[in-house]
Amino acid sequence: MRNRYNEQLEQLNDMLVEMGAIIETAIATTIQALRKQDMMIAKKVIDLEKEVDQKEKDIEELCLKLLLRQQPMARDLRLISAALKMITDMERIGDQAADIAEIAIFLAGAPYIKELEHIPQMAEATAYMVANSIDAFVKKDLKLAKSVIAYDDVVDDLFDIIKNELVELIRIDSKNGEQAMDFLMIAKYFERIGDHAENIAEWVVFSMTGKHKEIEDVE
């Protein structure tokens, strides 16, 4: 029985890695779509969102089986509970990548008011956070999880840079306003992706320590 339980825990790790890989691909694909102004590439992100949704359901089902059939000990209970929280944030990342792709489709036919620079940097930073948060969970690496939490400041700083650049473009020429707002929305979605990746890392910390700021704030 215990061997079967351990196998299912390994399966849970594998499924989380697979879900993480899909959302990393979604983030990378959104940037490719924006850079190339390619509607077909953007539509791939929307298809990936469906895969993310299915992975969330599959992982949720496995977690519930582990909780109901195996009566996990406290440490494993934290791990499974953390996984359930993590997939909620991962699913939202998939949604936000799809939202960016929808804007990319809208922008595909018009020349950009400025060259993409900091938005791709934001995308790379959020993908880095997602990959390392999942890696920290699988490897039970507390230091790595905490480094992901700290790295959210990089994403926030990039958002501020983009916002200031776009405000300046509108100041120079009000005709830039509509597209500037689209780019600001894209940057905001990436900022939210960073927040969700930070949340994932915080639940990784909880899975190992039993401590989470959300719980501590309530107490």
Would you mind describing this structure in some detail?
The protein has 219 residues and is mainly α. It has one domain: Phosphate transport system protein phou homolog 2, domain 2 (Methane Monooxygenase Hydroxylase, Chain G, domain 1, Up-down Bundle). The protein is built from 7 helices and no strands. Helix 1 runs antiparallel to helix 2. The radius of gyration is 19 Å and the shape is elongated. It starts with a helix and ends with a helix. 39% of the residues are buried.
CATH C-level class: Mainly Alpha
**How many strands, what sense, and barrel or not for the largest sheet?**
none
Order of helices and strands: HHHHHHH
**Strand-pairing-aware structural class:** mainly alpha
**DSSP, total strands:** 0
CATH topology description: Methane Monooxygenase Hydroxylase, Chain G, domain 1
For the terminal residues, how far apart are their CA atoms?
A: 37 Å
Number of domains: 1
- Fraction in beta strands: under 5%
| CATH-assigned homologous superfamily | Phosphate transport system protein phou homolog 2, domain 2
**CA-based gyration radius:** 19 Å
The overall pLDDT average reads: 92
Q: If helices are DSSP runs of H or I spanning 4 or more residues, what is the number of helices?
A: 7
Q: How much helix is in the residues? A: over 70%
The CATH architecture designation is: Up-down Bundle
Which residues form runs of ≥5 with pLDDT under 50? none
Q: Identify the overall geometry.
A: elongated
Summarize the structure.
It is built from seven helices and no strands.
